[in-house]
Specification:
protein serine/threonine kinase activity; five-stranded antiparallel β-sheet; transport; OB fold (Dihydrolipoamide Acetyltransferase, E2P); 359 residues; Rossmann fold; cell membrane; six-stranded mixed β-sheet; globular; alpha+beta; Molybdenum ABC transporter ATP-binding protein; 23% helix
Length: 359
């Protein structure tokens, strides 16, 4: 069901304009992905009513927020907004910041209650502290909780982890994952990190120069072309599977997806959990036979769906393969593709190192 409708045009400067036409899911996480200057933040600010656009039509579940003849001010839009910086009130404790949001909340609706927010974001030990006593990750968790306690119909998140170092990002990502599974409202999440997109996003919109160049389910978009590579990052795919076995002796978990199995380094998951993994094309090799004398644990029978010339390097190719309905990409030399005589429809073995799979 696509109930978040966004159609707008905005002349941002003499050499940049935003022109977007989107119908997005009314729950789950939609990532807005692209280079700096592609229009991501401008789009979010227009949706929030913080910037006006010349021609616009924005509505959620039939409730129109703006059109060419109608404009709902930002403070009347049922939106929670999380910025790159936490922007907490410095004179209030963490609890005081949350209480401020509760006073502004729509009393007629409850997407999440106070106790659930505290538990979900792990805030109980932080409530009596002031912002200057908190780490950057802790401040951002308070900011996210504050945005939720407004009881919004839409949550906007503008690169909420960009101000954090890598260790703090890894600390806060599990909280964001829990949040995304818990709240039943649409979340628009800006990022230029493919790791965050794969961890969090159900739907992906890629912007370039103010225009949408690709959109759809995250797994489909990342697997249909070298999208991430074109954005200056390693081409990657998303593999989503269920944990069916754990080997504590070797520290490995076995995932089941599309009638295939895959072994990865064990994390916090338990048997029965769904796990989303990032597999980079540079960590996938191709074999014509299912050889057993290899150190690579994951050797998946796949069909070649497409061979694509690497737009960044004429000496390499992207090979798109299908493991059931799950796309897998391999970045190999054009010489290897020729020597193996690779072609569309060919049955081959995709080899993926367990140690190389990312979360």
């Amino acid at each position: 069901m696509t109930d978040l409708t966004i159609r707008l045009t905005k002349q941002h400067s003499d050499d940049f304009s935003l022109s977007v036409n989107l119908d997005l899911p009314n729950q789950g996480v939609t990532a807005l992905f692209g280079r700096s200057g592609s229009g991501k933040t401008t789009l979010l600010r227009c949706i929030a009513g913080l910037e006006r656009s010349e021609n616009s039509d924005i509505s959620l579940n039939g409730e129109r927020w703006q059109s060419t003849t109608n404009w709902l001010p930002a403070h009347k839009r049922p939106i929670g907004y999380v910025f790159q910086e936490a922007s907490l009130f410095p004179h209030l404790t963490a609890k005081g910041n949350l209480d401020f949001a509760i006073k502004r909340a729509d009393a007629k609706r409850t997407i999440i209650d106070y106790a659930d927010v505290i538990a979900l974001m792990g805030l109980q030990p932080l409530l009596a502290k002031y912002p200057n006593q908190l780490s950057g990750g802790e401040r951002q968790r308070i900011a996210i909780a504050r945005a939720l306690l407004i009881q919004p119909k839409l949550l906007l998140m503008d690169e909420p982890l960009s101000a954090l170092d890598d260790s703090l990002k890894q600390d806060i990502l599990p909280y964001l994952e829990a949040l995304c599974h818990r709240v039943q409202i649409p979340i628009l999440y800006i990022s230029h990190s493919i790791d965050e997109v794969i961890r969090l996003a159900d739907h992906l919109v890629i912007l370039e120069n103010g225009k949408v160049i690709e959109q759809g389910a995250t797994q489909v978009v990342l697997g249909q072309s070298p999208t991430a590579l074109a954005q200056g990052q390693d081409t990657s795919v998303l593999i989503s599977g269920t944990v069916i076995e754990q080997n504590d002796e070797w520290g490995l978990s076995t995932l089941h997806f599309d009638h295939h199995q895959m072994m990865v380094k064990q994390g916090r998951e338990k048997i029965g959990d769904m796990v989303r993994l990032r597999v980079q094309s540079r960590d996938v090799s191709i074999s014509l036979s299912h050889a057993d004398n290899s150190s690579i644990l994951n050797r998946l029978p796949v069909l070649i769906d497409e061979l694509i010339k690497d737009p960044q390097d004429s000496s390499t190719m992207i090979v798109r393969m299908l493991a059931g309905n799950t796309p897998i990409l391999a970045n190999i030399t054009a010489l290897s593709a020729q020597r193996l005589n690779l072609h569309q429809g060919q049955a081959v073995i995709a080899q993926i190192k367990s140690a190389a799979v990312l979360r």
